[in-house]
């Protein structure tokens, strides 16, 4: 299996009024194609920071982030942005859909940003949305969709450009238990079907148990849970 993500001794520190605050102290992780890993740790321990570094949204203060075997964490902003658009999909607790666009348009736009023709992007969007049970809802704006439907659109959007790596930060944390279970099952099915590597942060031990393995943050380092 090809390695989609590797964190090598990654460090991240923040400057505060009280001084420097170390959050990650040499975190190591390897994630391969088709592997789904749960990231479980209490709030405030650095889960979101780790996901931001893995997703090239922040630069590490030490160590390196490798995407598909290539060092990427310390690239310039433009190069990191381009690589992120091609290779990484994101799903957050709150969907962050564009409210003025339809469900289909929300899935089309990131494809067109990478140069996909509008017709092909729309076809891909409809296929993804249908796979998430949203056939017939494609032309609805987010305000006319339920919370579960909005999050399924967000997952479809994250997969639209066929990324090799998916990062998710509490992707069903804003949903009720029954809806969370359904949406999470569809997320796992879609990720496994596409052979994507996924790192999914969750507080829910039942959801974590459905993934291939579980890691947790302890004192700024990653360890098997």
TrEMBL record:
<keyword id="KW-0067">ATP-binding</keyword>
<protein>
    <submittedName>
        <fullName>ABC transporter</fullName>
    </submittedName>
</protein>
<dbReference type="GO" id="GO:0005886">
    <property type="term" value="C:plasma membrane"/>
</dbReference>
<dbReference type="InterPro" id="IPR017911">
    <property type="entry name" value="MacB-like_ATP-bd"/>
</dbReference>
<dbReference type="Pfam" id="PF00005">
    <property type="entry name" value="ABC_tran"/>
</dbReference>
<dbReference type="GO" id="GO:0016887">
    <property type="term" value="F:ATP hydrolysis activity"/>
</dbReference>
<dbReference type="GO" id="GO:0044874">
    <property type="term" value="P:lipoprotein localization to outer membrane"/>
</dbReference>
<dbReference type="InterPro" id="IPR015854">
    <property type="entry name" value="ABC_transpr_LolD-like"/>
</dbReference>
<dbReference type="InterPro" id="IPR003593">
    <property type="entry name" value="AAA+_ATPase"/>
</dbReference>
<keyword id="KW-0547">Nucleotide-binding</keyword>
<dbReference type="InterPro" id="IPR003439">
    <property type="entry name" value="ABC_transporter-like_ATP-bd"/>
</dbReference>
<comment type="similarity">
    <text>Belongs to the ABC transporter superfamily.</text>
</comment>
<dbReference type="GO" id="GO:0089705">
    <property type="term" value="P:protein localization to outer membrane"/>
</dbReference>
<dbReference type="InterPro" id="IPR017871">
    <property type="entry name" value="ABC_transporter-like_CS"/>
</dbReference>
<dbReference type="GO" id="GO:0022857">
    <property type="term" value="F:transmembrane transporter activity"/>
</dbReference>
<keyword id="KW-0813">Transport</keyword>
<dbReference type="GO" id="GO:0005524">
    <property type="term" value="F:ATP binding"/>
</dbReference>
<dbReference type="InterPro" id="IPR027417">
    <property type="entry name" value="P-loop_NTPase"/>
</dbReference>
<feature type="domain" description="ABC transporter">
    <location>
        <begin position="5"/>
        <end position="225"/>
    </location>
</feature>
